[in-house]
Amino acid sequence: MLGWALIFLIVAIIAGTLGFSGVAGAASWIAQVLFLVFLALLVISLLGGRRV
Length: 52
Hints:
Largest sheet: none
Main location: membrane
Keywords: Cell membrane, Membrane, Transmembrane, Transmembrane helix
Number of helices: 2
Helix content: over 70%
Organism: Thioalkalivibrio sulfidiphilus (strain HL-EbGR7)
InterPro entries: DUF1328 (IPR009760)
Transmembrane segments: 4-24, 29-49
Oligomer: single chain
Number of domains: 1
Mean pLDDT: 88
């Protein structure tokens, strides 16, 4: 999931430099959402991990 966030971030940067502001905005929003989902799942897995 973190890989997808990085891909959308790169797409947003490239689209922004080429002048496609709509595509850049959408790609950066998707990258932010995926990164937040990744962080939430990371915290949940750390807190709810199995303890022996």
